[in-house]
Amino acid sequence: MRILLLGGTTEASQMAKTLAAEGLDAVFSYAGRTAKPVAQPLRTRIGGFGGVAGLTTYLSAENITHVIDATHPFAAGMSRNAHAACRRANVPLIRLERPAWAPAEGDRWTSLPSIEDVSDSLPDTPSRIFLAIGKQQIGLFAAKPQHHYLLRLVDQPEAGLPLPDTAVVIARGPFDIAGDLALMREHRITHIVAKNSGGQGAQAKLEAARTLGLPVLMAQRPVLPSGDVASTAEDVLHWLAHEADRGV
User: What's the pTM value of the predicted model, to 2 decimals?
Assistant: First the structure.
């Protein structure tokens, strides 16, 4: 058995520790979007594969027998490529996926089908927006330049931002409610934009929004191909054992 673990999330790091503790032969793959990725207890590669064809070639060349997709819930391109490549190469695939967030009493959420739909739902009057979506899709909000945007990023932006009025905070989660309450009060935030990525590491902003009574514009996850899905590293280990029993 030789495993390819597609990572970049807290769950992926937990999965890597589990695989290493079990003594399983595995390779951890980062997309390369973060300047200083978290060190892993597995052999690590950084960078893309070159689409479906490139990943299919990699699976064959590296004798990969199983793939664990533990990428971000919004990394739809990588997940779709993994699904297609594994089907081509006849390699079993499982997705390690954190549960989505759900609104609780006191939340003021507006649920939107995708992150591309959020900008049109922002108010027209100048507001102070906590744009808690990472760096990849900031440009979608250039159509609403009247707002002040607070960005929380893992790395300092290498180039100018497409938004004229921004404040940037460099920080890596997990975050806590006290810190996020202080951040929102300091920047006088009026609205929060988030992607429903789920998990504990970034949930504090939603709890802070509930405490402050702030509206949240929540982009829902992209639809991914169907297949085996696990919610914990232990579930993935059970899946691997079952695949091994089948002789796969």
Answer: 0.85
